[in-house]
């Protein structure tokens, strides 16, 4: 049996009224820097996934999301070299406040079809055709 370090990260596809998806660029100095990702992050000890995501969205983007507005969409299971990422992806179309880059990260609203132009972490690659099917162009 192998011994893997399983990392649970919660992420969300925020969708605006034009059916565009919010991508955030990972800052310099971090692992996978410069790549475009879905907002989210790791759970803190004792947190439920939805609670963690609501916290991350408040801290990173300054928006308030209510738990019933987070719907499970799909997940990724990806073997990175040093850990195995398990990442539930939620979808959310409703929030309060305006999206702001509170951590200095670049943000971009993109159509699903345009996602190929924004290099993403390898784990996210399989999500692109899934979102294109779901949201169309
Ligand atoms: N938020 C998010 N993380 C992703 C995506 N795809 C993907 O591989 N990841 C990976 C990158 C990181 O290894 C991890 C997210 O961790 P994080 O952003 O909370 O933490 P971090 O890299 O700053 O790491 P750390 O300083 O807390 O150790 O999940 C994605 O679409 N969104």
From TrEMBL:
Keywords (A to Z) from UniProt: DNA damage, DNA repair, DNA replication, Hydrolase, Magnesium, Metal-binding, Mutator protein
InterPro entries xrefs: Mutator_MutT, MutT-like, MutY_C, Nudix_hydrolase, NUDIX_hydrolase-like_dom_sf, NUDIX_hydrolase_CS, NUDIX_hydrolase_dom
Cofactor: Mg(2+)
GO molecular function, one term: 8-oxo-GDP phosphatase activity
Binding site for 8-oxo-dGTP: 26, 37-40
Catalytic reactions of this protein: 8-oxo-GTP + H2O = 8-oxo-GMP + diphosphate + H(+); 8-oxo-dGTP + H2O = 8-oxo-dGMP + diphosphate + H(+)
The organism's place on the tree of life at top rank: Bacteria
CDD domains per the UniProt record, alphabetical: NUDIX_MutT_NudA_like (cd03425)
Gene Ontology terms describing biological process: DNA repair; DNA replication
The Nudix hydrolase domain, residue ranges: 5-133
Record EC number: 3.6.1.55
EC category name: hydrolase
Gene3D superfamilies to which the protein is assigned, alphabetical: Nucleoside Triphosphate Pyrophosphohydrolase
Binding-site residues, Mg(2+): 40, 60
SUPFAM superfamilies hit by this protein: Nudix
Range of residues in the leader sequence: none
One Pfam family linked to the record: NUDIX_4
Annotated family: Belongs to the Nudix hydrolase family.
Protein known as: 8-oxo-dGTP diphosphatase
Organism: Microvirga mediterraneensis
Gene that encodes the chain: mutT
